[in-house]
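Incident log, structure service

09:12 report received: a user says their structure output differs between two submissions of the same chain.
09:20 pulled the input from the user's history:
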Amino acid sequence: MRFANRYIGSLLLAAALTAPVAIMAAPAPNDDGVQVRVYDSRHKDYHNWDDRENKSWGVYLNDNHRRPHEYSHSSKREQNNYWNWRHAHPDND
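09:34 re-ran on a clean worker, output below:
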């Protein structure tokens, strides 16, 4: 009986010591609304593709008299032209 109590006590102590480490190691959920990050190779930076960026893409297409289409379906050349335009037209926040 005494051996069983020591064994159970040792297990509880080990669990109590490792629980905080296991909780800290779990990654926190990233819920800031960003779903896609796009790399701009000419400017060597990343852009979060969100609703604001999608709206800017629509303005770019309209300004350049292009038909509406998804950024992901555009050519690499058009994507580079968009990022050049985007850096020249930053958001006014």
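09:41 both user submissions now match this output. Likely a transient worker issue. Closing.
09:42 reviewer note: The longest strand covers residues 36-40. Residues 36-88 form one domain.
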